[in-house]
Amino acid sequence: MFDDYVEHAADPPPITNIGNAIPNIEYEGFEPDQYAEEEQRLDRLGQAFYPGAPPPDSPPMFELGRVQYTLPAALSCMSVSSDILTMALKTNTLLQLNLKKPDAIITIALPTKKTPAELILSRVFLDPTGKHLVITTEQGDNFYSYDGWTKARQLSKFRMPIESIAWNPFSIGSTLPKTSTREILLGGRNGTIYEAVLDAQDDLFKSQDRYLQPVFTLPEKQPITGITFEGFSQDNRTRRGAVIVTTATRIYQFSGPLERKNEDGGRLFESLFEPYRTSAPKFVEIPGPLQYSELHSFTPPPSLTSSSTSTSQQLAWLTGSGIYHGMLTLPPSSDTLIDSASLLPYPLPPHGSGSEPPISICLTEFHFVILYRDRICAVSSLDETLVWEEALPLKPNEKPVALTADKARKTYWLYTDSSLFELVIKDEDRDVWNIYLRKESYDLALRYTKTPPQRAMVNSALAEHQFNQGNYLTAAQNYAQSATPFEEVALSFSDLGEKGRDGMRLFLIARLERCAKTDLTQRMLLATWLVEFYLSKINQLDDLIASESASSDVENMKVEQAILEDDLRGFFETYKPNLDRKTTYGLILSHGRNDMYLHYAGVMGDFDKVLEYHVMEEEWIKAVDVLNRQTDLELYYRFSPTLMRNAPKETVDAWLRQSLLDPRRLIPAILQHQHRSPAQSPLAINHAIRYLQHVVFKAQSTSPTIHNLLLTLYLTSSTTISSPLSATKEIPPTIPPPPTTSHLSPEDLPLLRFLSTAPVNPLTSKPYYDLDYALRLCKQNNKLQACVHIYAQMAMWEECVELALEMGELELAKINCERAMETSTIDGAPAVDESLRKRLWLKVAKFVVQDKKDIKTAMQLLDNTPVLKIEDILPFFPDFVVIDDFKDEICTALEQYSAHIETLKAEMDEATRSAESIKKDIKELKNRFVTVEQSEKCSICSLPLLTRHFYVFPCQHTFHADCLIGQVKEYLTSTSLRKLITLQNELVRRQIANGAPPNAAAPPSASATPDRVGSPAPRQPTKQRTLLSATFNPLDPAGIIINPAVRLATSLNPITMPRNVLALAGDRLRDLVVPDALANAIGGMGAALWGSGPGATKGDEAEKLEKLREELDDLLAASCPLCEGVVAGLDKPFIGAGEVDRSWDL
Questions:
Q1: 419: which residues sit within 8 A by CB, 6+ positions away?
Q2: Residue percentage of the chain with pLDDT more than 90
């Protein structure tokens, strides 16, 4: 706070021989007390070596430091409150500063013209808030200043020297503003007590001293050196006050009600002092040589007070004989207000050269600070021992004046006539616990302990004290928190026998609670020992109850035993990690406590042991209840077979609550239910089927094993199955039980219901159970109607209908025929097998006609079934039958046939007319033409179009014949390529056979048919390209090279070509297509057709050539290669293999 201004004094010279020096006396006939020596030794060990003692290098508790501030004049008096420090100088000037902002010093001037010799400042008083300041002088002039004022104001009504002021710590129903001091008490030098009110608020008609009234005058009329006031409530209704007044030799006590008679302030204490005007107040007189005294008070923190409804203050009164101190406790418990009052003699000086009275005292929480002329010391207020003494570091001619304290901030100050000192107190309560411990005030000692070793020492002493007093239970709890060795405590309780067993148990519990979780071995030993204690005590109570059955204490023993058993159960749950299972089970069984055995097993999660016990005792319901309370699925699988045999309903209920069970692992238990005792009623509910129904229909199990098992139980079980599922679902229309049949019994209903509602695999559209197994099982058990349903599921419609008809179930057979029409499939794809449908209905019709001999029903069957006709069922009728029964049906059938024939005839005529129209359109297509400009160019080679044979497309693209062939062959399929090569070979062969050279040009023609070849002017002969290597260069028998065209035709002739050559050419079909040769062959073919070439043929030959040409045109000119080839060539790269793109080169 004021560290920048405090200069800590050097270590004072050591003070020796505190107290009177006692010379060494030899023992003459008196031996020392051995117990006293031992006690002193333990005390020294506790102080020097015990961890609770303060360390040797701990900072001093009290430290006096000089404030580095030079006063402008000699200091007369000083006061501090709420960090506001006010100094009155002998120049009649006041300096005020805020310790939180020490740089800003306020100078307060007095409104007087008197000189310092004429006006001597005697005292300054600050209220607890530090806002109100009262200055008094030896001459009786008094001044008042408020927070922030720079000039004080004179109190005109206050015309007497003020020795002390008791500030009002709180408002008692007052409506005065915050600038008011409220009612305060003034102690005058004339021995009179005044009540006054000061207000800093400016008022035109009122001064700051709003009210001043004497309320009481002491009988001796001595200066009132100290006064303090405290209010309290009595019976939570009446407000009362207590006033302590001191003079140089007396201390007075006043107490009475507080009644306000004026709302403007004042006359609050009149009712308090009124009774003492007729009777003398109580006082204590301590004569002494001093003509002055001081009264100080200290209010402890609220957390240290013993009661929330009472207040207490520590009082200290400086007298000539010593310090009179005690506690002001309100409301008072007796006639006197000061409790525990005593007189503390002043400590002797260091050298014992006589005593001198102190100048001033100051009261802290645990010490009296005493100021002498040349030294300062501190005495403990608890044991009255001197704890600190230091010589005053005074300058020459410097005299100490007094001590002052800031009660709000707990700071303490010493001032001389020229300097300021701050008394810094650190860790004042560090030895308080030890003092209270020596006084055997254990509760207070525990309150002031700060470290675990300190608390352990206090608990050790408290436990020993309680143990000696016979309070074993309380001693056990304190022993557990102490540092007393475990073995010593255990032996102490063991020596007590039965009286110490409860204390020992509580001690072990407390030690176990305080034991660290990492001390596993210690915790296990303590917990095991406690289990033994509990079990022994419970068995002991059992024996006492059995032996004293007629005693009146039996009920108390039973209650005690129940409490112990509950405690043991709670102990198991709390400390189960610290118990060894094998050891604990052995202890429990050795004491024969089966109930505790089961409880401990449940706590530890060993439900298998609990289940084994209940099963051995045949307590089936309890076993199922334990099974419900645990989550281990393996226990379900392990104990379910036994429980299912003895308690099927409860077991199945337990299964239904546990949704994580695997039904397949419960199959052994389910089968156990089928081996019930014959004594059981056959009409009992089959709980195995009830569980499987839940698994199949609600849990949506897809396991074929479960479905097959449920089907098996339906077939082999004769019990009644009553469940919500069977009560709500009816048999679907696909399996209607006729009322007259004898094949359907009530026992078959659950089976048929399951077959009709069983879940279906969405991938296979088949039920999850094995159809073959179900069919075999139904046949073995003679469940024919179920077989009909299974045949339908297997799509074996003929067997299904036959079996239904064998049973005489006509309606069932008809329904399955209709289902066959709806669900008949071929290789899994929906289709309608007319032959199958017809065969099924024929079987039904045959049954109706031959077996039932019901002609009328047969006719109705024809009306309802479009598949059958009258002629289909006529063979089933007997040879001699009256035709009148179905004459109408025969006539109707003949009429339908006649109408159908007429319809077919009309359709044939319409088709003939359509064919003639198409032929006519085809002939007209040959007369189409396209006009080609002379400058037209080929869309591929960009050369003039009319120089060679060409093609023109409706999209206006034009091509040379050889360019078109070279473009088209790249996109033709292998089949089209082979056809193109065949046409090419045939054209070349016919050209050679007709005697025309392969390169002969056709005569020019000015017209071109749509998608046909145009015949332009003769083309200059060019050199033929060699298609392949020498493989296609055969020699004639004479060794003469054949004409290239002939060679080409020969090489491409599949008849003359060797097979190995055909295999090689098949892999290179596109290379076999020669555009030039094919174009020349087309041209030569055209010349032959028009008779312009040698060897031209007519008649049949011309028709064959025209047909070849049309086929070739269909291949080459079916579509424009540029338009269609763009789409076909999307997967072709822009740059071919071996090509180099230079377009992106820089």
A1: 66, 67, 71, 75, 395, 398
A2: 34
Give the C-alpha separation, 1143 to 366, whole Å: 105
With CA atoms as reference, report the closest residue to 735 among 714, 716, 754: 754
Q: What are phi and psi of 273, to 5 degrees?
A: -90, -10
Q: Which residues, including other chains, have CB under 8 Å from residue 1142's CB and lie 6 or more apart? A: none
Helix (H) or strand (E) holding 1046: helix 1044-1052
Burial call 783-794: b when 16+ CB within 10 Å, e when fewer = bbbbbbbbbbbe
Angle between helices 1100-1116 and 974-993 (to 10 degrees): 150
Q: Can you tell me the mean pLDDT for 91-106?
A: 90
Look at strands 132-137 and 400-406 and give their pairing.
unpaired
Round to whole Å and give the CA distance between 832 and 820.
9
DSSP 3-state assignment of 231? strand
Residue 1046 reports pLDDT greater than 80: no
Q: What's the predicted TM-score (pTM) here?
A: 0.56
The answer to whether 472 and 61 are in contact (CB under 8 A) is no
Residues 6+ away with beta carbon under 8 Å from 81:
126, 127, 128, 129, 130, 406, 407, 408
Model confidence at 886, in pLDDT bands (50, 70, 90)?
A: low
Residue in 523, 520, 496 with CA at minimum distance from that of residue 508: 523
- Residue 155's CB is within 10 A of a number of other CB atoms, namely 21
Instruction: Please measure the distance between the N-terminal and C-terminal CA atoms of the chain and give it in whole angstroms.
Output: 84
**Structural contact between residues 283 and 209, judged by C-beta atoms closer than 8 angstroms:** no
d(CA 653, CA 674): 17
pLDDT classification of 258: cutoffs 50, 70, 90: confident
Amino acid at 957: H
- The answer to whether the peptide bond before residue 331 is cis (omega within 30 degrees of 0) is yes
Tokens 């449920």, residue located: 710
Of 85-99, 685-699, 893-907, 1017-1031, give the lowest mean pLDDT range: 1017-1031
- Long-range contacts for 422-425 (Cβ within 8 Å, ≥24 apart)? 422/2, 422/6, 422/64, 422/65, 422/67, 423/62, 423/63, 423/64, 423/362, 423/369, 423/376, 424/6, 424/62, 424/63, 424/64, 424/65, 425/61, 425/62, 425/364, 425/367
Listed in order, strand segments (DSSP E) in 649-710 are none
Q: Which residue has the tokens 């009362």?
A: 240
Residues 200-204 have a mean pLDDT of 77
In angstroms, rounded to a whole number, what is the distance separating the alpha carbons of residues 239 and 331? 11
- All residues at 6 or more sequence positions from 1091 whose CB lies less than 8 Å from its CB, including other chains: 1098
Whether the CB-CB separation of 366 and 382 falls below 8 Å is answered with yes
| Mean pLDDT estimate for the chain | 78
Q: How much helix, strand and coil, in percent to the nearest 5, is found in the chain?
A: 40, 20, 40
Q: How many helices (H) and strands (E) does the chain have?
A: 37, 34
List, for residues 506-516, the tens digit of each pLDDT value: 899 988 988 88
Give me 384's structure tokens. 């009255």
What is the average per-residue pLDDT within 13-19? 39
**According to the model, what pLDDT value does residue 1041 have?**
35
Strands 75-81 and 958-960 turn out to be: unpaired
Q: What is the phi-psi region of residue 114: left when phi exceeds 0, alpha when psi lies from -120 to 50, beta otherwise?
A: beta
Q: What is the mean pLDDT of residues 335-359?
A: 84
* Whole-number pLDDT of residue 814: 81
CB 461 within 8 A of CB 446: no
Token pair 């056959």: residue: 682
What would the two tokens of residue 381 be? 């207020």
Other beta carbons less than 10 A from residue 262's beta carbon: 11
- Decide: residue 464, CB within 10 A, 0-12 exposed, 13-18 middle, 19+ buried: middle
Lowest-confidence region among 546-550, 663-667, 1034-1038: 1034-1038
